[in-house]
Design a protein that fits this description.
This protein has an eight-stranded mixed sheet, with helices on both faces. Strands 6-14 form a two-stranded antiparallel ribbon. The protein has five helices and 14 strands. The two termini are 32 Å apart. It has one domain: Alpha-Beta Complex (Spore Coat Polysaccharide Biosynthesis Protein SpsA, Chain A). The longest helix is centred in the middle third of the chain and has 14 residues. It is of the alpha/beta class.
Length: 210
């Protein structure tokens, strides 16, 4: 499929049954996103595999990494590299539990910036704060502003900046914010859309298989 100059809605998921069921449950939402001119692609990790293909009438992108939470930042970077090679206009990254209450957000300022999202974190007087993975401690610069991982947009310029800088932090959303803030020429926009046009993690549908 020719993806040049296309806006991509990249849905982060995995092949476990709970997530596949959720993907199917939100099928109407994804069609509404397509109707707004976006190409919807579901993202999976699988060692040794790098390809975009059609599965059950859905476009699926596989990147060569084991599909584990600790590999999330790597998984996203590999996907962005692939999509940049294809010449996309930008990527709206969504987790598979995100629900768009109003897809008209895709016609507004969200996709006109280089980096935008529904909810922004960060902004502090300075210093660092500690964050720990299972094996390593990181000290994160508190001046980093970032949009929470379930939902954010990156333009082509934004994607190029992220690929250029690479991985600084193992937390995907913090890493994206860090990369973007290193280039002050990039346009950043906070849509403040969480809870209005965009929501995530519906606790009523959680079945314990994640």
């Amino acid at each position: 499929m020719d993806l040049r100059d296309k806006r991509i809605c990249l849905v982060l998921s995995c092949k476990r049954p709970y997530y596949m069921n959720r993907r199917n449950r939100y099928a109407e939402q994804y069609q509404q996103i397509r109707d707004k001119g976006c190409v919807v692609i579901f993202l999976y990790g699988e060692v040794g595999r790098r390809e975009l293909l059609l599965e059950e009438d859905e476009l699926c992108l596989y990147v060569p990494v084991e599909d584990l939470y600790k590999n999330l930042t790597t998984k996203m970077i590999l996907a962005y590299e692939y999509l940049l090679e294809k010449g996309v206009a930008g990527v709206l990254k969504m987790d598979d539990d995100v629900q768009m209450r109003d897809v008209s957000i895709l016609e507004g300022e969200l996709t006109q910036a280089d980096y935008s999202g529904a909810q922004e974190f960060g902004v502090s007087a300075g210093g660092t704060f500690p964050l720990k993975t299972t094996s390593e401690m990181f000290y994160v610069d508190t001046s980093i502003q970032y949009f929470t991982g379930p939902f954010y947009w990156l333009s082509k310029r934004g994607l190029e900046q992220v690929i250029k800088i690479g991985i600084k932090y193992p937390w995907e959303d913090i890493n994206i914010g860090y990369c973007i803030r290193l280039d002050s020429s990039l346009i950043v926009c906070n849509t403040n859309a969480k809870g209005k046009q965009v929501v995530w993690y519906d606790e009523h549908e959680h079945d314990g298989d994640d």
